[in-house]
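Review session, final week

We close the course with one last complete record, chosen because it touches almost every idea we covered. It is 1-acyl-sn-glycerol-3-phosphate acyltransferase, a protein from Membranihabitans marinus with 188 residues. Go through it on your own first, then we will talk.
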Amino acid sequence: MHIKQVIAKKILALFGWEVTGDAPCTEKGLFVVAPHTHWQDFPLGLLVRQYLGLNVRFIAKKSLFSGVKGRVFRLLGGYPVDRSRSQGYVQSVAAIFDQHERFYIAIAPEGTRRKVERLKTGFYYIALEAQVPMYLTAFDYSKKKVHITGPVWPDPSNENQFDDISAHFSGVQGRVPAYSFTKINEKE
């Protein structure tokens, strides 16, 4: 473990946090991080990234990348995305993977910090288009655990895979419990 990883581990432990699960084992990957309910998820994600020793980039809405704040987000590894244009979004994010030999990116599948009833599908199609695995990363504030599951390769022949991914995050308590993702069973 490098010194930066040791420091990140100590800071996480100081606040009572633990990182569990699968260590990333691929050269590229998409960290699907949920629930995203509060701004404090961002510094937690930066600590986890440092603990893992990976240069995990992140996608965020374009409006966050203006002025001084924008420069800081870029320095921290951010990629601005215009979410008002859905056309070409998946392809443009997937193309970023082709530009790098080793590359990881994090995406919040809810697309907002507010309560949602279903996850957006863009992350799945990005992984499929880029032919990279997903690392399902749960930020569970009730247990103070960041749990990583993966690699999970997108499989379009598995018609239940997206539902399985949604179920994976269902009930994980975010910083704002009321905004945490709870999968709605459509058959009820």
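Two points worth writing down before the exam:
The chain has a mean pLDDT of 89.
The chain has one domain: 3-170.
Good luck, everyone.
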